[in-house]
Amino acid sequence: MDPWVYTREWLAESLLAKPVALIIDLGPSDYIPSEHDSDDVPCAQLQVMEDEVFLVRRSRTELGHLLLADYSTAAVTLDKWYLQEHFDDCTDGLLFTKDRRLAAETCVTWFRDKQGPDEKIDIGCNYRFADQLVPEDQTLF
User: Are the CB atoms for 97 and 103 separated by under 8 Å?
Assistant: First the structure.
């Protein structure tokens, strides 16, 4: 199986039944951030929003974690590519979609298209779940 197809399928499956606010960061597995590094580095980020919508962000710099006021998507247009730089770390646009395969494909093609002809980008992944304000097991208090 083509490794890009495998990665796309793995990522699409990773988005099944995930909680709101989950962030999946993607980037080269061997990338080490540096304040002095000005080289472009392909990065992508998926964030689970309300109503089973995914926010996909692509960038040529490391993406931070957004501190959103809420996760509602009532005011966004689905499946439209937003190119304006609304978030300063998001250099190459963002997309809201309910289609988890489209979300996964958008990320995977970003890395595939950014690698050189003699280069293979091994994608690293990090999951970040939302913090709970109050623990589910309140008997601890």
Answer: yes
| Other Cβ atoms within 10 Å of 60 Cβ, number | 15
* pLDDT on residue 38: 61
Q: What is the pLDDT of residue 54?
A: 98
The residues near 77 (Cβ < 8 Å, ≥ 6 apart) are 96
Beta bridge partners of 44: 26, 58
How far apart (Å, rounded) are the C-alpha atoms in residues 5 and 11?
Answer: 10
Q: Tell me the Cα Rg of the chain.
A: 16
Phi, psi for 28 (deg, rounded to 5) = -60, 130
Q: Helix crossing, 100-114 with 3-14: angle to 10°? A: 140
Look-up of token digits 């392909």: 42
| 93 φψ region: left (φ > 0), alpha (ψ -120 to 50), beta (else) | left
Task: Please identify every stretch of the chain with a pLDDT value under 70, giving residue numbers as ranges.
Answer: 34-39, 140-141
If phi > 0 it is left, if psi is from -120 to 50 it is alpha, else beta; for residue 97 that is beta
How many CB atoms are located within 10 Å of the residue 140 CB? Answer: 6
Given this model, what pLDDT does residue 141 score? 58
